[in-house]
Design goal:
Distance between the termini: 14 Å
CATH superfamily: Carbon-nitrogen hydrolase
Oligomer: single chain
Number of strands: 15
Radius of gyration: 17 Å
Number of domains: 1
Strand order of the largest sheet: 13-12-9-8-7-6-15
Number of helices: 6
Structural class: alpha/beta
Strand content: 25-35%
Length: about 270
């Protein structure tokens, strides 16, 4: 079964909310839409890592409304992470999946907070993992720093998602780790990993771009390299992945006794 994967590699301008949104909307309007199409945005793409949490939350609620309209108009699922408040009024770094049929179809709060970006000061960590069924495919939801913790993905792998989403703000200084970890996670979980990283300088940090899609063999099938404010796309057929899983059924040997709270969210999208 085919699905078109698009990733937006953006220079996220800290606290320039409207500029970031307008730039994204322009790029979305240029996309050639496939019948099953998902777009991944970088981590905190609309605001950057800002300490103005209340302002960011207010703007992001409006941004999600706008992207929901675009998702319906263009028949595309749009996924990105945002500074938002959770159900207990705490700020979180939340990956939101917006589909043609639902403004917030699925949401995952980042579980592994990155202290060097002050996330442990600003955000409440997520307590559960989320799998979203989009266009008849299962997507494991993760964010950036989660990538360094293989146990997260092994817990997901028990449910055999074909794809994982990894919106990121990964710095240039460690970009080789980023690409190697994505390939490794793809191989060990027999899945396709989709990353969208920010690019360019934000404050004192240079973000490394190199957003990639890696297949179940760990091979790179889409590489944005150092492109700025562009969307790249690849059409993926999941039939070879499913054949590989049957031929080499590593996932069947995972330990299924460990208890983990994972919610699978489905509809007819």
């Amino acid at each position: 079964m085919e699905i078109k994967i698009s990733i937006a590699q953006l220079n996220v301008i800290k606290n320039s909310y409207q500029v970031n949104l307008d730039k994204l909307l322009y790029l979305i309007d240029q996309l050639q839409i496939h019948k099953s199409h998902i777009l991944l945005l970088p981590e905190l793409w609309s605001t950057g890592f800002t300490s103005k949490l209340k302002n960011a939350n207010g703007f992001n609620l409006e941004a999600i409304d706008i992207l929901s309209t675009r998702a319906k108009e263009r028949n595309i699922a749009i996924c990105g992470s945002y500074i938002l408040k959770n159900e207990t009024n705490q700020f979180v770094n939340r990956l939101v999946v917006t589909t043609p049929s639902a403004k917030i179809f699925a949401a995952y709060d980042k579980t592994k907070l990155f202290g060097q970006m002050r996330e442990k000061e600003w955000f409440f960590p997520g307590r559960s993992l989320k799998i979203a069924k989009i266009f008849d495919h299962l997507f494991g939801l993760t964010i950036c720093y989660d990538l360094r913790f293989p146990e997260i993905y092994r817990n997901y792998a028990k449910f055999k998602p074909q794809f994982f989403l990894v919106p990121s703000q990964w710095p240039s200084i460690r970009i080789n780790h980023f690409k190697k970890l994505l390939s490794a996670r793809s191989i060990e979980n027999q899945a396709i990993f989709i990353s969208a990283n920010s690019v360019g300088k934000t404050g004192n940090i240079n973000f490394g771009g190199n957003s990639i899609v890696t297949d179940y063999m760990g091979e790179i099938i889409l590489d944005m390299q150092d492109k700025v404010d562009e969307i790249g796309s690849v059409i993926v057929n999941t039939d070879p992945l499913e054949r590989w899983r049957k031929y080499f059924p590593v996932l069947d040997d995972l330990n299924m006794t460990e208890k983990v709270n994972i919610e699978i969210i489905t509809n007819n999208t």
